[in-house]
């Protein structure tokens, strides 16, 4: 058995998982891609365990542990995704921007207001003035503080 | 190339191909079903690598439990059943570049490191009694820690899924926001 075949298959599978995590929008598809990456790691562990003829079977036992952890991760991940779906009616990770830098919260139910321009468009002096009102705005004052910031320039 | 190598390469091609279909298909249910094919082919690969117990655990947990759980999630989030052009985000080409770079890097490292290494693999190394002996002798402490982890994630999933409990009423209106 050439060891290069299992490891190459594992590397390709990992790359497929990387593509899925980066390119997909649906959170459940993201979980599936993470599972693909975990399986690539498992294949590596098993291949090297068999290859080195480990007397303690560390690789295969660690593979079993990884499978269990992956099952727990899927369970928790699905619980979180269902919670997000219940609150936001969407599981598209591109739209869950409530914690983003601009704070528009486009996936939130109160997303009717026009999107605020990105902070980078302002010059540094404006950022200084906005910084004073910003501490309160981040704590939840939200729209009012942001509107005055936008009106400053 | 021995017969073992050939069988493993075929199974690996099936696994990688169905994995690629899983991350590129336009129908979300088909993605879960391609995932079944990929995991099944990987279980076959474990069998070829003489890791029998891991192969059956893979079939039981991944093909049996994880994919069913993912299908439950797909149904509970009311995902569109038909073709949906909205499953891919805009950075698909960047993702493709990153994935190709990852694949090239890892395969190059593996080929350079283990290029012509060949060693016969004998059966019996991954049977249930050998793995059970090493789990309950050498690796018994991680095994117990893992059971605690499973319990914690079980409790966490239940707490996250229940809608009739939330933050305490005296520390703000977190519960009401959670319900909305």
Q: In words, what does this structure look like?
A:
The complex is a heterodimer of chains A (153) and B (180). Chain A folds into two domains: 4-88, Orthogonal Bundle (Helix Hairpins); 119-151, no CATH class. In chain A, 68% of the residues lie in helices and 0% in strands. Chain A contains five helices and no strands. In chain A, α2 runs antiparallel to α3 (58-88) and α4 packs antiparallel against α5. The longest helix of chain A is centred in the middle third of the chain and has 31 residues, at 58-88. Chain A is elongated and about 50 Å long. The N and C termini of chain A lie far apart (69 Å). Chain B is mostly helical. Chain B is built from seven helices and no strands. Chain B has helices at 3-24, 28-48, 52-76, 92-114, 128-137, 140-161, 174-179. Chain B has two domains: 1-89, Four Helix Bundle (Hemerythrin (Met), subunit A) (Up-down Bundle), CATH 1.20.120.1200; 127-167. The model of chain B is unreliable at 171-180 (pLDDT under 50). The chains are: A mainly alpha (153), B mainly alpha (180). Chain A: One of its GO terms (molecular function) is NADH dehydrogenase (quinone) (non-electrogenic) activity. Chain A: Residues 100-153 are annotated as: Disordered.
Q: What is this structure, in a nutshell?
A:
The complex is a heterodimer of chains A (153) and B (180). With 153 residues, chain A is mainly α. Chain A is 68% helix and 0% strand.
